[in-house]
Write a structure and sequence with these properties.
mainly alpha, Lysozyme, 221 residues
């Protein structure tokens, strides 16, 4: 009888010990899970903060320079769409955002500059030539009576003009090369001819305006 009682006591102690160990392991595992979650959340927050800082730094370097339109802006298609949405009168050019970015990447002509030329030459892509001929940049238009060049798409018009500028205006030794500024391009692209058109001033104002909107939207300036 005594042996049976001792056996029962031992069994109870063993079971209690097992329960204790099991409970301790569960607590340890739970603590490990909590620590892992905290570390994971911290790492995720740090990554988000790093991405935010990188993007903020990139946004602060987005640029347009009147004195050198071969300096690329670095703007993204989605950002340019937002710029046009928030610039008075420019929402009619949202669909051209990809064309301006591609023109910059392919031919090295600043995207804000190309957008400004289009805005000036086509009334923000709403002129008759822009709508009927897809001619956004006044290409081969020398007078109001000029036929001008017909393009299959407005995208083609932007890319064709950017290539023309890169090859014939912005390359040393090229036929129309005078330098790489907006003012240099104006000399042959849109001569004043005594009419005081101030083409270069208007292009600069538009390009600078687009950049200003970008800075307000993305660089908190």
């Amino acid at each position: 009888m005594k042996f049976i009682k001792e056996s029962i006591v031992i069994c109870i102690l063993v079971v209690s010990f097992i329960i204790f160990i099991s409970s301790s392991n569960e607590k340890v595992n739970e603590n490990i899970k909590i620590k892992s979650y905290v570390l994971s959340s911290t790492k995720e927050n740090l990554n988000k903060e790093n991405v935010r800082l990188i993007e903020k730094n990139r946004a602060s370097n987005i640029t347009y320079k009147r004195e050198d339109i071969t300096v690329e802006s670095g703007v993204k298609k989605e950002e340019l769409e937002n710029v046009f949405e928030n610039y008075k009168g420019a929402s009619t050019m949202i669909h051209l955002s990809e064309a301006f970015v591609d023109a910059e990447e392919l031919y090295g002509v600043n995207a804000f500059t190309m957008a400004a030329i289009v805005a000036l030459e086509s009334g923000f892509a709403t002129s008759r030539r822009a709508v009927e001929d897809n001619n956004l940049t006044g290409f081969e238009v020398y007078t109001d009576e000029s036929k001008g060049k017909l393009f299959s798409t407005q995208y083609e018009s932007v890319l064709y003009t950017a290539k023309h500028l890169a090859n014939n205006y912005l390359t040393k030794g090229a036929i129309y090369y005078e330098g790489v500024s907006v003012d240099d391009v104006q000399i042959h692209y849109c001569p004043d001819e005594g009419k005081n058109k101030e083409w270069e001033v208007k292009v600069d104002k538009l390009a600078s305006g687009f950049l200003d909107v970008y800075k307000k939207l993305y660089a908190n300036e």
